[in-house]
Amino acid sequence: MKTPATLRRPLRAALAPLMAALVLAGCASTPSGLPSVDAPAQFKEARAAAPAAAPTEGQWTRATPAEAQPRGQWWRAFGDPVLDQLVERALQVDDGNASIAQAAARVRQARALARLSDADRSFQLGAGAGASRQQGLDRNQSNRPSTLTTAGLSASYELDLFGRLSRASEAARLDAQQREALLQSTRLLVQAEVAQTYLALRAADAERALVRDNVQAYRDTLRLTQRRQQAGDVAELDVARVQTEVSATESDALALDRRRAELEHALAVLTGQAPAALAIDDQAWTSVLPGIPAGLPATVLQRRPDVAAAQAAVLAAQARVGAAQAAYFPDLTLTAGGGYASPEIGDLFKWSARSWGIGALLSLPILDGGRREAGVQNASGQLDEALAGYRAQVLGAFKEVEDQLSALRLLQEQAQVQATAVSSAQRATQLSDTRYRNGYISQLDLLDARRSELRNRRQALQVKAAQYQATVALVRALGGGWDASAQAS
Q1: Which of 37, 104, 152, 321 could bridge across to 379 with cysteines, CB 3.0–4.6 Å?
Q2: Is 275 a domain residue?
Q3: pLDDT tens-digit series, residues 22-80
Q4: Angle CA 383–400–262, to nearest 5
Q5: Measured distance CA(202)–CA(225) in Å, rounded
Q6: How far apart are CA 13 and CA 8, in angstroms?
Q7: How many CB atoms sit inside 10 A of residue 210's CB?
Q8: Of 296, 289, 320, 310, which Cα lies nearest the Cα of 472?
Q9: How far is CA 378 from CA 30, 315, 317, in A?
Q10: 355 dihedral zone (left: phi>0; alpha: psi -120 to 50; beta)
Q11: Is the pLDDT higher at 295 or at 289?
Q12: How much is the pTM?
């Protein structure tokens, strides 16, 4: 039967927009791959340290992040058994750090969602049974109510002709990969926080010992001054001055005690314990300050798990753009069913009551109010956000490394200058003490010399603590994961 020309023209006009949409969707290209990030061939601080080896202008190395990988036992480079025990305790699966447990739970959730996406691409098989009573719904039936019981199996399979399901499954898999990288990043963060908190506690112990030694020295001076006052050699003003120094220094010691308690409590929480369950003995600060190889900027992109997570986010967003574009194409689902149907439940499983059917369902929305276009725009916006986040993550990684490299270089210079200041202040105190006992200078001059020595020695300890903190921060900025046998500086 031929279709009249008067009907063919309206039909072509109605289908023209649909065909155009399919053609445009078929021609739309899904973005793929990572954005190019150019990494300098050498860190700025490395060029400052060795200008003769500086690269020429325009010499760059292109790098791509690697998958998430274990970070290694870098904390052992500090050579402190207590630190080793604390970090290993924090990394325990069952009762370790809570942030790591949360990140691991998110990984399990993402993996489960990936399996759910894969299930949409699988063969579906189900069983069912039912009973219904009806009247007047079938022209072949009488006006009397009738009963129909059924039992059987049903099967379905959606043909992924245009890649919508495969792209959605790929996006879910990349989401799980991103969560795995974030888990590695969380572990590295916890390791760094435990190390920095423990080293800060050891620095507080060293500073407390220094301040308490000065408290004892001031008390000895106070007793001497009190005896000299009783003998009539000095006035009460001298006693009051020394008493002031004793009380002020004791106040500083108590403030350091409070800080140490807070650091110990923080370590307990970081290692998954109640503060009452952890007690760290006050002992000498024997941790080694390792020399950390900075490597090349390209290696930072390969080692840092947060960069790998940003990479997975970009690839997942690209897959979702492809899935949104595939929504313009029809869905084709194959169905099949077989079983038994009978008006009498006793005859349900008789061979004469068998029934079966097969079918194919083709679905293509024509007018959807702009739903598919909005889906593509939303996925494209998420992709742009992921690309910007990836670039920001890479640039931030370079900045963190440069910050810590410059901090270590300047702190080393500051430590050398401060050591000279401490030596001079100690010598000044010795000379002032001798001159005071011989009556050449006043007590006020001696107290000024002691305050200066204490201030410089505390400043030297703070510089040393800052060096340890910057070293751990550099480890974290570089992504961790090298041999713990690094040479001590």
Answers
A1: 321
A2: yes
A3: 444 444 455 566 666 667 777 777 665 554 433 333 333 444 444 444 457 889 889 99
A4: 110
A5: 35
A6: 9
A7: 17
A8: 289
A9: 14, 16, 10
A10: beta
A11: 289
A12: 0.79
165-186: average pLDDT: 89
Q: Is residue 87 one of the residues assigned to a domain?
A: yes
pLDDT in tens, 371-396: 889 999 999 999 999 999 998 988 89
Does 365 reside within a domain? no
Pairing assessment for the beta strands 124-134 and 146-159 based on DSSP bridges: antiparallel
* Calpha distance 407→400 (Å, rounded): 10
Query: Domain holding 261: CATH number?
Result: 1.20.1600.10
Q: Is 350 domain-assigned?
A: no
The pLDDT tens digits of the residues spanning 119-157 come to: 888 888 888 888 887 766 555 555 677 777 888 888 888
Please, which residues bridge with residue 336 across strands? Answer: 155, 358
The two tokens of residue 261 are 């308690």
Show the domain range for 56.
Answer: 32-125+163-328+371-478
Domains identified in the chain, total number:
1
For 305, phi and psi rounded to 5 degrees?
Answer: -70, -30
Provide φ and ψ at 269, rounded to 5°: -65, -40
124-134 and 60-62 beta bridge pairing: unpaired
- How far is the C-alpha of 19 from the C-alpha of 376, rounded, in Å? 18
Q: How far apart are the first and last CA of the chain?
A: 93
